[in-house]
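Same chain as my last thread, 287 residues:
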Amino acid sequence: MSIRILTDSNCDLPSDIIHDYDIDVLPILICLGDKEYEDGITIDSYEVYKNMKQGSVYKTAQIPPNEFKKKFRQCADNKETCIYIAFSSGLSGTYQSSILAKNEIQEEYPDLDVTVIDTKCACMGQGLVVLKAAKMAKEGRSKEEILEAVKFYSEHMEHIVTVEDLEYLYRGGRVSRTSAFIGGLLNVKPIIDVRDGKLVPFEKLRGRNKVIKRIMDIVDERGKSLEKQTIAIAHADDLETAIKIKEMIEERFKCRDILITVMGCAIGSHVGPGTVAVFFLNEESPI
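reply #2:
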């Protein structure tokens, strides 16, 4: 029985990887006023970033249960095993939508073989989990082996994020007007990571260069066997900084497998243009 790897567009994997590894991706909904778009299909991240710079405020909506039902029904009809690798339940209701859909579809298809995983990851943190699973599925590995790897990667994935402008976090209701204003005056840049599936600021520094240097130190402190890993860098319309970070990681840690990707509409609409993030494992994978 073939194994289908299903995920959502929050994973931010590059399109060539999605194609090469036959990954099935459901789009998160992006809303601007009364207009609704599908992430990466009817709107792209560069359009979102351009509009955000001009003052637009986007919101996101979870994938409706009916969209999951369609996918799960296809798997049942094709007698496929499906592993849905979900965006963190601490940041979206999409995981719950998939559970609701699975429970309803299994009444119709009692033999449906669907496993839903809450990665507690976001952006390319989730993407690296999905990529590992997709590679293993393509190699013909068993469902149990893939689930073991997904569990390990999900539990040991680091997300180190910095935003360029606190104004975007203010617009999305994530910081106060005062914090955004003072942060802008002082050129304060927060460093954020993901704890228990939620974005948590844990340091603040003044100036972009200091932040990037500190991110490198955090990678050094937390990463294990970095030269053996696939490391991901995501950026929100700031390729120059992403390339700079890539070169620093290559030189300092002798890493050669580094992915750079554009942060998608869903995550990007909350953190804003200029955001960059690094994703890596804090333990060496046994799989």
